[in-house]
């Protein structure tokens, strides 16, 4: 594929967490000020999500919209500066960042994923508590997912449109807080039994495909690395390989074909994928450094993979996309103002819409913002 900049037809950009606006080239990026039916966001290839709040006590460091996931309808979820969840959709007037009402007092709310109907899953810390709870928030109604043991912590990391939620749950109260990989279905919690056979004390189910394939990882009783796994319903469990013995294998996402993506943390930190047969493959990088850090975090059903790489030239994180086995700098696929640098891509849906985090270098406070990108992949 030829890397090229994409022209966009947009209106204006909302810049700064204080709500001030500044004009930039309309061909570059946009925060449209009107709904799509009035010529707004549907024509934009790079949309900057609104920024609403400033981190208290630290005016020089702002993380105003840290997105975590996108569904096939283009609705994005994530966390705002003050530790609360948000939703954003191009179907509503631009400039609107919805902060769903959380029905119980909480010190923090961390959304991790969103399904096609807009139900958000994640973890929250009830006010005054030291134990996190896994949740589903749908239409303003909160479902507190059960734990393996009462009054022990749980956290949801992924979901699909069939109502399957995956994550982890504590098994024993204690300083090490041992966890195992679990999934929830129809309000019931289930252990992924094959993970128990590893004998480890730290396990997570990190993602679930639309047809119920679950991936995750766990340490082992011998503490000889982190073992990646894939579970296919109704009860097929398989341990996935790592690039080297004793490596750290951490799957981050899986598609309906069963192809999983993630990171292998051995002698190098490599972005990898596991094919349908369970074989592991290292993804290419742009850096020429043998110590380059890279991770793949999401894959769609077309096989497009997104993630990030530590660039040797800048020693900074840069967003990457892998298409048909070839790696591209995501920055080269969209036309952004020069002060915005895409540092990581966090999710991609089946329409090839990508959610990416950017740092802002405009001689002002250090900021990290969220973009919705529609490059022609």
Fold and architecture overview:
With 377 residues, the chain is mostly beta strands. Helices cover 1% and strands 45% of the residues. The protein has 1 helix and 30 strands. The strands form 8 sheets. Strands 3, 4, 28, 29 and 30 form a 5-stranded mixed sheet that branches. Strand 25 (305-310) and strand 26 (317-323) form a beta hairpin. The longest helix is centred in the middle third of the chain and has 4 residues, at 193-196. The radius of gyration is 20 Å and the shape is globular. The N and C termini lie close together (8 Å). The model is unreliable at 1-28 and 32-39 (pLDDT under 50).
The gist of it:
The protein is mostly beta strands. Helix content is 1%, strand content 45%.
Radius of gyration: 20 Å
Uncertain spans, ≥5 residues at pLDDT below 50?
Answer: 1-28, 32-39
Number of helices: 1
Structural class computed from helices and strand pairing: mainly beta
Gap between N and C termini: 8 Å
**Largest sheet entry:** 5 strands, mixed
Helix content: under 10%
Report the sheet-strand fraction: over 45%
**Mean pLDDT, nearest integer?**
82
Shape: globular
| Count of distinct strands | 30
